Amino acid sequence: MSGRNTFTKTDLELMGKELESSPAPERPMTKSEALDALAPQLKTARVRGHTLASLVAQLATLGLKTHARAISESIGRLDAVKPTRVRSVRRKAAKTPVGGQDAQVRQ
Q1: How many independent structural domains does the chain possess?
Q2: Which residue of 34, 50, 93, 100 shows the fewest CB atoms closer than 10 Å?
Q3: 75, part of any domain
Q4: Which residues contact 101 (CB under 8 A, 6 or more apart)?
Q5: Gyration radius (Cα) of the chain, Å
Q6: For residue 57, is it left (φ>0), alpha (ψ between -120 and 50) or beta?
Q7: Residue 35 domain-assigned (yes or no)
């Protein structure tokens, strides 16, 4: 490391271009992410008649050891409808008339 503490605008532009052009590192997927990525194919296999147990066995031979429940949940997430957010309506407070009861109580 050179120990530089000052940089020119050109240095920063070069650094920025280098950072923008560098590819993002590929990170390994978790089992859950892998099953979610395979969910469309797993669902198709289920429709064709494969059981969850046969899918577990087939994935195990391919190197992905999992459980039937995980496959089922993955397919369920594929079909799940995400609920839309419902905003609650705030009601305006009733206005008291000027010189109403509050004004009489203060006197």
Answers
A1: 1
A2: 93
A3: yes
A4: none
A5: 30
A6: alpha
A7: yes
